[in-house]
Specification:
With about 290 residues, this protein is mostly beta strands. Helices cover about 10% and strands about 40% of the residues. It has two helices and 21 strands. The strands form five sheets. A six-stranded mixed β-sheet has the order 4-12-11-6-7-8, with no helix packed on it. It is rod-shaped.
């Protein structure tokens, strides 16, 4: 809801000369009101903290926070302006837009003026201006990036492996400001339509998952001793992105033109991790056999 009454009252006071000369100054370009010091007084000019981030990345559907730190603000006003349409979003603590997702916040006795954008959408991406009502105005620009995390399984959409070999799937999660809280793997039998979460301690055995979290998160699924029952659709489902799927075909001596292996297309680091997983599984089996004997 637009709150224009305080601004209108102050303008009226200035126009009717109820305030001393020089006490009021309207910065029409910013849509804000400057309260200037009396003649002869001296103070430091407002300045922006250079350490404030100029690029902010937000996850679509989550809140975005744009910071502006102003030193020596005095009794001047801070406004936030969207450059896409030069729309004045906030002036001081007031919101000047009907879009209630936008809100300015300021903690007393601090230099921080934060613009919050709730439920960020891709159209919110762009340049925002933090403007101080000096003459001329002083501005600090922040660029907002709104990203949609995505997941993909390398080697898709179809992967062919020999019976008895190892199914090696790599899921890459990108464009996320933070790693996913979890990554689930699913296996769907396309004949029966049965879909289930892949369990590491299932009766089948020989299943391992390793997830490396970082700027880009990678999750590796290894299924040893592939059998025809392991054919079907495999899906990688991170907590912060839509799932990605690939079809796995376990072959019994057949050699289609698109023949691949479970490790095809993987980087050296991926192959190293796969080898370590296989080695650890073999070690566990050997240890179990020795204990059983």
């Amino acid at each position: 809801m637009v709150r224009a009454q305080p601004l209108a009252r102050l303008l009226l006071l200035c126009l009717t000369h109820l305030s001393p000369p020089g006490a009021c100054d309207v910065a029409g370009g910013a849509g804000s009101v400057n309260s200037l010091p009396a003649a002869g007084s001296a103070r430091l000019a407002p300045s922006f903290d250079a350490a404030t981030p100029k690029n902010v990345t937000a996850l679509v559907g989550k809140s975005a926070y744009l910071s502006c730190r102003v030193r020596n603000l005095g009794n001047r006003t801070v406004s936030w302006i969207r450059h896409r349409d030069l729309h004045i979003l906030t002036v001081g603590g007031y919101t000047y837009t009907s879009d209630q997702r936008f809100q300015a916040s300021h903690s007393p006795h601090t230099d921080d003026w934060t613009l919050q954008i709730k439920w960020a959408q891709q159209r919110d991406a762009g340049v925002y201006e933090c403007q101080v009502s000096t003459q001329p105005v002083r501005s600090f620009f922040v660029t907002l990036h709104v990203v949609v995390p995505s997941a993909r399984i390398l080697g898709g959409p179809d992967l062919h492996v020999d019976m008895g070999s190892t199914i090696n799937l790599t899921c890459l999660i990108q464009f996320s400001p933070e790693p996913p809280a979890y990554v689930f793997w699913y296996h769907e039998d396309e004949v029966s339509g049965r879909k289930q979460v892949i369990s590491y301690d299932s009766a089948r055995g020989g299943v391992s998952v390793v997830t490396e979290k970082g700027a880009a998160t990678t999750s590796y699924l290894l299924v040893q001793d592939a059998a025809p029952a392991d054919s079907g659709r495999y899906s990688c489902a991170p907590s912060n992105a839509d799932l990605a799927s690939v079809r796995v075909h376990v072959l019994n001596g057949e050699r289609p033109a698109a023949m691949q292996t479970g490790s095809a297309g993987l980087s050296d680091s991926s192959r190293a991790i796969a080898l370590l997983l296989v080695a650890s599984l073999l070690h566990a089996r050997l240890r179990s056999a020795l204990l059983a004997s």
